[in-house]
Amino acid sequence: MEEKIWKDHYVLLNKDEENELEAFGYKTQGCRRALSIAGYILSCGVLLLLFYWKPEWDVWANCVPCSLEEADVVLLRTTDEFQKYTWKKVTWIDLSTLALPVGSYSECPLVADKDSVINRAIMKPQLKVRCIQVQKIRYIWDFSVKEFRKVGSLEDSNTCHSIHHKFGAGLTREEREIRQLVCGPNAIEVEIRPIWKLLFKEILNPFYVFQAFTLTLWLSQGYIEYSVAIIVLSVISVGLTVYDLRQQSTKLHDLVEEHNKVQVTVCTKNEGFKELESRYLVPGDVFLLDGKKLSLPCDAVLIDGSCIVNEGMLTGESIPVTKTLLPLTESPEPWKTHSMEDYRRHVLFCGTEIIQAKSTGRGPARAVVLQTGFNTAKGDLVRSILYPRPLNFQLYRDAFKFIVGLSAIGVLGLIYTVCVFTYHNKPVADVVAMALLLLTAAVPPAIPAALTTGTVYAQRRLKKKKIFCITPQRINICGQINLVCFDKEIEESTTAQDRAGAIDACIVRPGPNASSAPVEGIAILHQFPFSSGLQRMSVVSQKIGEEQYDLYMKGAPETVSSFCRQETVPSDFLEELKTYTSQGFRVIALAHKVLSLPEDVDVGDLEREEVESGLEFLGLLVMENRLKPETKPVLQELAAARIRSIMVTGDNLQTAVTVARNAHMIHEACKVIIVEASEPEGSAPASIAWQLAEGSKTSAAAPSVSTAKEVYANAQEKITLEGESCHYHFAMNGKSYQVLVKHFYSLLPKILLNATVFARMSPGQKSSLVEELQKLDYYVGMCGDGANDCGALKMAHAGISLSEQEASVASPFTSQIPNIQCVPELIREGRAALVASFAVVKYLTLYGLIQFVGTALLFWQLQIFGNYQYLIQDVVITLLVCLTMSLTEAYPKLAPYRPPGQLISPPLLLSVVLNVCFTIAVQTCGFLLVKKQPWYVALASWRHCSLRNHTLTPTGPGENSTSSSAQSTVLSYEGTTLWPLSSINCIIVAFVFSKGKPFRKPIYTNYVFSAILTLQLAICLFLFLADMDAVYSGMQFLCTPVIWKVYVLLMLLVTFCVSFFTEDVLLQNKHLWMLIKACVGYQSKSQYRKWQRMLQRDPNWPPVNTKDFAARSTAEVYVNPSYEHRD
């Protein structure tokens, strides 16, 4: 029984999708609700704030678990590593308000499509539907399967036949009203968020709440000026953040709003055609495409006619694409499965633009609405901007660990303070206040905010270089990239205009310079468009003035030849093809067939499979593949930086290998091993052949022992480009890759280590390849045009779409530079942002601990720094350092290794620990040495400094001091000594941590930061050295002899020298760390490193000119099939 309750209590939403969620049912309980309200009041809102931060606690406190069918609250949890919670209230949609036909209250379905989830979601006889709204998507309760189902889309189970027959004539008025009410408006509505909402969300951030708590403490201790300064800065910070968020909200709202008001002509059953606003469209509606330019307001499937569409928003590639009607077949398979991965050629996506619509003899082009609102392709883009996927990057996890560590130190300080102040019999209020002050001093609340400064500045610099980013968190990850996959962007390609001209023309005529032509022109009557899955395209044409119909096909030579009559294919076809492809030419095969069609035939109804057979082979069209001028320098730069380059293309394998050689992806001295894998045939198991490519050096057998040792020595570098240290590269096509994944999965990691060329790869195979490379612990970048790479671009750590758009569904990064120069730019900025983030975190940690040590020493004798002393440290020094430290630009040359990817790493931890030790040593020395000076007195009050600066009038312990109690806790020789030691130490660590080369430009190129550090140092020295009564009284300093000031400066000079030497000569010395790693026998834990070490010990690797067989034939398919349809 308990198991059944749990089963009903829990369900998985969006299974196997990117936004997969776990849903748990809860019911609000009156007594629990009352207790919670009492808790809110008694805790003065603290409990409410806690529930705001932890929504799951709110649900657990107010509700009891129940089945989802009875639930009035649904608790949602992401299935990723973050396990983030949100909760949603279950609402009801009342259909009884509609004027429904008689019989609606009975068991008859309200929606004509019996398979529709709407029918299964309506509660009879009440005519109500339960629903929840999650991230702009509506889910309704399906009573038959006891689950929440997404609504706003046509069911994927529909066949080609059912789409034509169920929806071809349109929907009735009543059904449209029901669908409208249940699915919601067809609008991508982005609210311009009110300023008060943004303001509350910002100030309820834990960072600002912690700051408010700290300020309350400071104010209670009389630190008015300091607190006011922090309040002013916080108000400015919140104001700027709210302004920025408001601007983003407005920009996104304006971007999508115009598409919500498109006028469309809808066909309704029994009522004919009528014009209405696109927001009233529902899934299943039929609308007309009358030839005018139209920005599509929904996702729709074409059921009549053909269209030419600009899919720039969707793919990032502004090249017209031809869409054809969904075939009217009796196949029982769902329509997407029937069309396989090529179903997209029938779909018109929301946000794309119809350039031209071509009608058939039956009337204008028509389309059935598939998805509306945020379920559409454009809605998906907007949702990815509104709700970016959290990134589990090591930096953010380590920063949290840092905060936890600092909090532990703060707790120790709290215990220390309680002991000291209690020992001196101080009032409880003072003990609590001082203990909390030391606790807050150790934990700079700005660490999470500071992590984003480097990213923000890097994003601005990228924008200037025409590289746009919709997920800024990924910029830091770009600093760790060590492998980049390239599609065809390394070669010159035809322009969008050239292609558009070829597609747009319905009649092709001889050019003006043609001397003579056998025909006046050729009419293109129908087109079977090209797709990466089919690797071919065909057109049905007719010569002007003649009655004969012809079919022409072009495509991959291997594919086209398979559709031709064998007697028409030359016997030396393969040899001839190899001759051209081995020289790097791009080769397309051409074929023709005369069609025997009856006079009244509609060519639009022709089945592709029927007409594309028995063709006559015409010949090969050979085109030169010229590398873009930027390609070689970029690939050489990446190779010098030990970043692997891989070619993943749809071209012929031999062509791809030649292009890779010409681009120096494969060096001349290296051999290329072609991997050819075959599926099992009959009783023969799957096989894999290792064939040495022609032109490869046959002498390059498996690396010798001495070579292996050299490779191992080179592998001491953090990142090694495998292609440089090995003498061989693997190359394969998509079919072989698929067989490897299915039947030779254990070999896949070995092959991927040195695989450089992947040809004839389908979009799904590209996604799978990226995922397999990530399993080897590579940080993968993917550069593509967006058209056939959407899945791979999203899957990669950094997907870069070359596009004219500022944002596309295709990838997190979009470059308007139409070549691969953007790749090293992005890696440079990523590295600079990552190093800047580390530097700021290290600085804030040191700043907090420097202040903590100084305050703890003063607490020993029940004293504290003064108001303005804290003000200078926190505002004049630390705030300005945090704002400007990350302004240093990226170093123009990529270093041959990556920056550390973890805060919790020996160099970074040692840097913090050693600098803290130096701080403790120097401040303790100053604290103890000042007590031994002949002029020192324990309780001193400020007196005028004489001109000679040696006559001091101390107040003895027995004298009546006229100073206030506040002065007595501040005025001391220890405080006067510790303040310059701690303040100038903050400036020293800011300088030391702002390292330039190899990832950032030198510090002096950051003019603002350099000027600020110089000014801060000048202010601190002036305040400490100036024998001016006004300065000393304001800063609450005591006069000290000149010789003591010299001692303090000498201590600071020693601190600087030791800190700089430790950081620059020891901790940042890569060769020293390599030596230490070699001595202790450290080996990288990355999977690809482990495989490299294993292969270096294998004398039989790589196999050459051999053939292996699978141990047993298996039907197990490893590759995730969702990739095949995700693109």
Folded structure, characterized:
The chain is α+β, with helices and mostly antiparallel strands and 1127 residues long. Among the domains are: 10-150, no CATH class; 195-258; 394-466 and 827-942 and 971-1068, Calcium-transporting ATPase, transmembrane domain (Up-down Bundle), CATH 1.20.1110; 475-492 and 627-693 and 726-826, 3-Layer(aba) Sandwich (Rossmann fold), CATH 3.40.50.1000; 530-599 and 613-624, Calcium-transporting ATPase, cytoplasmic domain N (3-Layer(aba) Sandwich), CATH 3.40.1110.10. It is 43% helix and 17% strand. It has 40 helices and 36 strands. The strands form six sheets. The protein has an eleven-stranded mixed beta sheet, sandwiched between helices. 41% of the residues are buried. Residues 494-505, 698-725, 947-966 and 1113-1127 have low confidence and may be disordered. This is Cation-transporting ATPase. It is a multi-pass membrane protein. The chain crosses the membrane at residues 34-53, 226-245, 399-423, 435-458, 844-862, 868-887, 908-930, 977-994, 1006-1026, 1046-1067. One of its GO terms (molecular function) is ATP binding.
